[in-house]
Amino acid sequence: MTAGLACAVALAGLPACSSDPYADYCDTVSGAQDPLAAAVASDSPTALVDVLGVLQDLRDASPDDVVADWQYLVGRVQALSDALDAAVDGTGTAPEDLDVDDPPEGVSDADLDAVRAAARQLASSDAASALSTVEAEVRAVCGTSLTGT
To answer: Which pTM was predicted?
Structure first.
């Protein structure tokens, strides 16, 4: 009780003292589970691009020991998003509707190559390793998974 009172007095006006340094991260994980589960269940090739904001929130809230892994994952999704946007720019096609096997008029081979390269990077063993690391962290510190399953 004395320690709690000392903490309250010493930090008056600041957020309450917490015995769980991962509470904010776990709250962010909890709020991300439904959109991430929907993305995983989706058959859309741009499902992760669609939840880029959620992934960015997780990266921003992540503990120091996994921030580099989150940054890597978010960077790969951002690269795919940027490549898709660049590919369809001026075509009237939405990024999620781009068919790399039958692209609309105005999509260059270089743009298609950039999309394919970004998709390969997102599907790489490095990205799988980073995902494995953040998933293990979520299970260890939050007692759940990224998708709540």
So the answer is: 0.84
